[in-house]
Amino acid sequence: MISKNQLKLLRALGQKKQRKAHGLFLVQGEKNVLELANSDLNVEHVFATEEFLAEHGTELANFECIEASLDDLTKASTLVSNNAAIAVVQIPQVEKPKAQGLMIALDGVSDPGNLGTIIRVADWYGIKHIVASTDCADPYNPKTISATMGSFGRVTVSQLDLPNYLENANLPVYGAFLEGESVHKTEFAAEGILLMGSESHGIREQAAKFVTDKITIPAFGGAESLNVAMATGIILDNLRRQHS
């Protein structure tokens, strides 16, 4: 059964400061926990209900599993539902990725749900690396991990000095702005960086000066703006269509 100290740790890992101190993060929900079996991440423990462990014993064979009641897991979880399994995972040492291939860069995207969805979108379009400004949402926030729907194990996020990275990238930088060339008419290179800003501030000046191509998604209705994750998907689809 789950101990009081283990329950205390699970609750603590909901906070960024505690994740940093312990070097650990939470993976919650049945689907996301099962995704760990196909990842290179180091799993410390899996806490799960008797039913979940019995049903998925084969996938979880390499992990140290601890049976816990649904009531205890619900108390420890940040999720409203889907609390049958929670894993404690080591935060990986992520090397700053070389500027190559197709990448996403994020400037000030502070909502963890948006970041998680962008990670999921990146995975769908075969993008392995996201570089993010230091004030972006924490990639190991439980909300971020949940929103990735399992993609957290295949896409790395490096938080770094974004303007400095873009300055030294030696790749075209496609910046999403309200004014720019339509993505329907842009000729995208096969390799490049798609730079997205937050919905409230857009791409800030420090990063904007390294944009080589300003692009926009043309609007056909009256909406003021698009969700940043949705906009990322639309632009990537136009780009991939040219280089599939």
Any chance you could write out the topology, listing elements then pairs?
Layout: H1 4-12, H2 16-22, E1 24-28, H3 30-35, E2 43-48, H4 50-55, E3 65-67, H5 70-76, E4 85-90, E5 102-107, H6 112-124, E6 129-133, H7 142-147, E7 156-160, H8 162-167, E8 173-182, E9 192-197, H9 205-208, E10 213-216, H10 228-242
- The helicity comes to 25-40%
Q: Assign the structural class, choosing from mainly alpha, mainly beta, alpha/beta, alpha+beta, or little secondary structure.
A: alpha/beta
Q: What is the N-to-C succession of helices and strands? A: HHEHEHEHEEHEHEHEEHEH
Radius of gyration: 19 Å
Query: Which regions contain 5 or more consecutive residues with pLDDT less than 50?
Result: none
Descriptive notes:
With 244 residues, the chain is of the alpha/beta class. It is 32% helix and 23% strand. It is built from ten helices and ten strands. It has helices spanning 4-12, 16-22, 30-35, 50-55, 70-76, 112-124, 142-147, 162-167, 205-208, 228-242; strands at residues 24-28, 43-48, 65-67, 85-90, 102-107, 129-133, 156-160, 173-182, 192-197, 213-216. A six-stranded parallel β-sheet has the order 7-6-5-9-8-10. It has a four-stranded mixed β-sheet with strand order 1-4-2-3. α6 runs parallel beside α10. It is elongated. The model has no long low-confidence stretch (mean pLDDT 93).
